[in-house]
Recover the amino acids of this structure.
């Protein structure tokens, strides 16, 4: 069931990304281009998604457990630390450079376009390298 | 400032579908549907089960992209937009490093995090939106 739920979520999310326009980097860059040629569409993507999740998330989280697992896996950290300030700052610069963030990058693999494969491959590699690096530093600090 | 290519109906439909997808994911698996986190953990899964559901999610994302292209064509995709230029690689490196270090991307922080009223995610979303806009202002 968990496998099926993951697959269906991925498909729904991918079709949603297509309709949203976020698979088109040019459109994303126009959304970010607030001072010149602005395309406000992506504000409606976030608005549409949040209109659903702002209502459904609190209702679901009131339950004891999810349907296919024993417990919820929700991040518990509350501090505004360097992770959620420096990290997103770096991510934003990368996003602004190409107009592609992780989800639309992966969904765009369906276009079989070589630059997309190069982008996604590089992104995956640096996700893992960074994560391994953070683990090493934490381990060192712990000893 | 000039408004261009505004597609309110399609973008709203897309947003609602993404909202429903993340809702389904939380209700069934009990997890936050953050793409960068799932992609990262997929590569570092120690158990076959964790690898399987993450892999199926990523596969679904690609199938979803494929279904969209069958319905609407490749007009609103990355086909033909990017060359294999250094900018694309620099972007992919910064997105990989930034989302791994920053504990999430547009989906995990921007949609799921805000939905559960996480202060960390609200801060993260404001910061990446801001630096992305500044980057486009100078480079775009």
């Amino acid at each position: 069931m968990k496998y099926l739920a993951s697959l269906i979520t991925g498909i729904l999310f991918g079709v949603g990304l297509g309709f949203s326009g976020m698979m088109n980097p040019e459109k994303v860059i126009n959304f970010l281009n607030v001072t010149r040629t602005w395309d406000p569409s992506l504000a409606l993507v976030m608005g549409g998604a949040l209109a659903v999740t702002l209502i459904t998330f609190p209702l679901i989280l009131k339950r004891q457990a999810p349907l296919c697992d024993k417990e919820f896996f929700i991040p518990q950290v509350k501090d505004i630390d360097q992770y959620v300030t420096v990290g997103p700052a770096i991510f934003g610069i990368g996003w602004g450079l190409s107009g592609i963030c992780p989800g639309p990058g992966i969904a765009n693999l369906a276009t079989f376009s070589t630059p997309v494969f190069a982008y996604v491959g590089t992104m995956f590699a640096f996700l893992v390298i960074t994560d391994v690096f953070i683990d090493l530093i934490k381990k060192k600090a712990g000893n | 400032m000039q408004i261009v290519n505004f597609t309110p109906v399609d973008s709203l439909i897309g947003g609602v579908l993404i909202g429903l997808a993340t809702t389904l994911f939380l209700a069934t698996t009990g997890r936050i549907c953050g793409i960068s986190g799932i992609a990262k953990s997929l590569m570092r899964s120690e158990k076959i089960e964790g690898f399987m559901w993450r892999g199926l999610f990523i596969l679904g994302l690609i199938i979803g992209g494929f279904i969209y292209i069958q319905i609407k064509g490749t007009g609103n995709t990355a086909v033909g937009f990017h060359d294999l230029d250094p900018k694309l690689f620099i972007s992919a490196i910064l997105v990989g490093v930034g989302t791994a270090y920053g504990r999430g991307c547009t989906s995990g922080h921007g949609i799921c995090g805000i939905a559960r009223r996480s202060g960390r995610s609200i801060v993260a979303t404001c910061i990446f939106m801001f630096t992305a806009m500044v980057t486009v202002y100078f480079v775009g």
